[in-house]
TrEMBL record:
The UniProt record lists the keyword Cell cycle: no
SUPFAM superfamilies with a match to the protein in the record: Porins
Domain of life: Bacteria
Keyword flag Signal: yes
Keywords: Coiled coil, Signal
Signal sequence extent: 1-23
Protein name: Porin
Coiled coil regions, renumbered to chain: 28-55
Source organism per UniProt: Sphingobium limneticum
Length: 490
């Protein structure tokens, strides 16, 4: 506008210079006429300028492609996707190196609310940290047994955990959790790890510390993600003598539709160093030969070999068959002493199509005994299934070949119905290779109601049968157990 006004003033001056009479001795009337003419020209130029500016504003407000300069400066938002859309996105200790690098490229301090608790990230993207927790409250009631001591109602905390996980840069990560469910401190997961990529499609991680087994489908699934209140007999009976945890090292490799792990571990955290630890070498692998947006086939195999410590030669085992919180409903081996080593192995076959999933597992454990006594063999198998009435896909994690927490489509806290899942399972356990060994089976039906992705209610009805040859409850016996759980994971 200023340039146009200057042009108007110059034109007026030029008009004065071009009129010699006016330039020499202009009269008052002539000067007034000139000023009036100049003002009119300036007003005309201003009107034209206002019209041009109005058109520019209208064009800027109208929808259309952004200017080329803006397109060059714009930065697309970072989206860190989960390994599968039907499960809750993994935390800092479970993401792959590609996701960790993407997070490290973010700028600015961030606090993001995930499944229940926030994830904190430093301004340079180097440090990540997330609190962890798990509260699982159970009640169980058994009836119908021929033994009064088995017809009990009990309560318990399946898990009461607090912990943390995090990472430094794209490669280093850690996780720590303690459990208080038995009214005492029990360290469960506690490890340091390193991850990297071998190629565009294959990555790996290495973990050192107190490690959770990668063994069997339900045995590799966390207690907060199992579709039933208790894992199947394959996971609870075909197991190293030390249990689900051991201190050692584990390497894992991941491809587009498979994973494999190898570990060497000693005993659990126990504070006793007077004798050698037992040594357990184990492996597990899974493969998804069919994998689409709404269907998947799972094939898995696993095994372990265990050299027993001199302090762990007792192989006596009593395995729950009617739920975790009735200790009287078990299948027993009878007293079994003098173990030298054990070897276990198993297979997994299942998958899902739409909201329906099916999984079959079988396992066998061979215990080698001292002296000339023959080996003792334990055998277990199970078939389970589930269906989501509300349309969710089963919470299968294709990276690990196990179940995770479901991504609920319409949480109850947002006015939706949550996710409702119907489940059923048959499981069998056989210790009869021993003279005093028993056997048993259980059939379970259940319903899971996920209020959101980290809060759920579970109800299981179990019909069980045992035939023990030793212990307080011998002979054939059957009954029913009803169990319920309220669970929160964050």
């Amino acid at each position: 506008m200023t340039s146009l006004m200057l042009r108007g003033s110059c034109a007026a001056l030029a008009l004065i210079a071009a009129t010699p009479a006016l330039a020499q001795t202009p009269s008052a009337d002539e000067l007034a006429a000139l000023v009036k003419a100049q003002a009119a020209e300036i007003a005309s130029l201003k009107a034209r300028l206002d019209k041009i500016e109005g058109q520019a504003v209208a064009q800027a407000a109208a929808p259309g492609p952004a200017p080329q300069v803006a397109q060059q400066q714009a930065t697309p938002p970072l989206v860190v996707t989960p390994f599968a859309p039907q499960i809750v996105p993994p935390g800092p200790a479970d993401i792959d190196v590609g996701q960790a690098r993407a997070i490290a490229r973010e700028v600015g301090v961030k606090t993001e609310w995930g499944a229940g608790l926030p994830v904190f990230r430093s301004a340079d993207g180097v440090f990540t940290y997330k609190p962890r927790g798990r509260i699982l409250v159970d009640v169980s009631s058994t009836m119908g047994s021929d033994y009064k001591g088995r017809n009990t109602t009990t309560t318990g905390m399946r898990a009461l955990r607090l912990g943390l996980e995090g990472g430094v840069g794209p490669h280093f990560f850690y996780q720590f959790e303690s459990d208080f469910s038995e009214n005492e401190v029990d360290i469960v997961t506690a490890f340091l790890g390193w991850r990297n990529r071998l190629s565009g499609k294959v990555d790996y991680d290495i973990r050192v510390g107190h490690l959770f087994n990668d063994r069997a489908f339900e045995g590799s699934t966390g207690s907060d993600s199992t579709p039933f209140l208790e894992r199947s007999t394959v996971s609870t009976a075909i197991i190293p003598q030390r249990g689900f945890y051991g201190i050692g090292i584990m390497g894992r490799m991941f491809g587009p539709n498979w994973h494999a792990s190898v570990s060497v571990t000693g005993d659990r955290i126990d504070g006793q160093q007077a004798t050698n630890d037992s040594r357990t070498a184990s492996f597990r692998a899974h493969w998804n030969p069919i994998k689409t947006d709404r269907s998947l086939l799972h094939v898995g195999a696993w095994g372990f070999d265990e050299a027993l410590s001199a302090a762990a030669t007792s192989l006596t085992r009593s395995t729950v068959i009617g739920g975790r919180f009735n200790g009287a409903v078990r299948v027993s081996t009878g007293e079994l002493l003098g173990g030298r080593s054990t070897t276990g192995y198993g297979a997994e076959l299942g998958g899902y199509s739409g909201s329906l999933w099916v999984m079959g597992e079988a396992g066998r454990r061979v215990a080698r005994l001292t002296g000339d006594r023959p080996n003792f063999e334990s055998k277990a198998w199970s078939v389970s299934t589930g269906f989501f009435l509300t349309g969710e896909l089963p919470p299968y994690n294709p990276r690990l070949g196990s179940f995770g927490q479901p991504n609920v489509l319409r949480p109850t806290f947002d006015g939706g119905p949550g996710a409702i899942e119907l489940t059923a399972r048959y499981e069998n356990l056989d210790y009869t290779d021993l003279v005093l060994g028993g056997d048993g089976w259980a059939a379970t039906v259940g319903v899971n109601w996920y209020l959101n992705s980290f809060t759920r209610l579970q109800l299981n009805g179990i019909h069980w049968r045992t035939d023990n040859r030793a212990g307080a409850f011998t002979g054939s016996d059957d009954g029913q157990t009803v169990s319920a759980r309220v669970g929160v994971t964050f």
